Amino acid sequence: MSIEKGSAFLLKVGGGDTPVTYTTIAGLRTTQLQVSGEAVNVTNKDSGGWRELLSGAGVRSVSVSAAGIFTGSAGEVRIRNHALAGTIDNYELSFESGERMRGRFLVTRLEYAGDYNGERQYVIALESSGPVVSL
User: Which of 25, 47, 67, 128 is most buried, by CB atoms within 10 Å?
Assistant: First the structure.
């Protein structure tokens, strides 16, 4: 596996159409992905003193966070509308290698900040709702 550029790690939002088309969220400077899972402990007296976990059980989730410069792109406006309405939509993460991950996410945080004589910045956080698949 070769080294990949961080600038090629893109967040895209679905357009609300069928089939889904994705629009890259413009102005992103950083993007972060976290895959989490809860373990189900099935250790018992026959485990020989070692912890045993149940494969495939528990709750899995994907969290995405990103920060960037607000450009007023259609994707940014769509995310703001989702944050205000509390709606879930299709999102895609794409990587320089061509690998992609898709799933439905809820915007759990949208924060804007700006300084006098500086750019308007934003931070977003998404939490998965349902399965996230790797393509």
Answer: 25
Q: Which residues pair with 102 in a beta bridge?
A: 92, 133
Residue 26 has pLDDT above 70, yes or no: yes
Three-state DSSP state, 52:
coil
pLDDT by residue (tens digit) across 74-114?
A: 888 999 999 999 999 999 998 888 899 999 999 999 999 98
Residue type (1 letter), 89: D
128 beta partners: 105
Query: H or E segment at 107?
Result: strand 100-114
Provide the CATH number for the domain around residue 73: 4.10.410.40
Q: What are phi and psi of 24, to 5 degrees?
A: -70, 135
Both ends of the chain: CA-CA distance in Å? 17
Q: What is the residue type of 107?
A: V
In DSSP terms, which residues pair with 106 in a beta bridge?
Answer: 88, 127
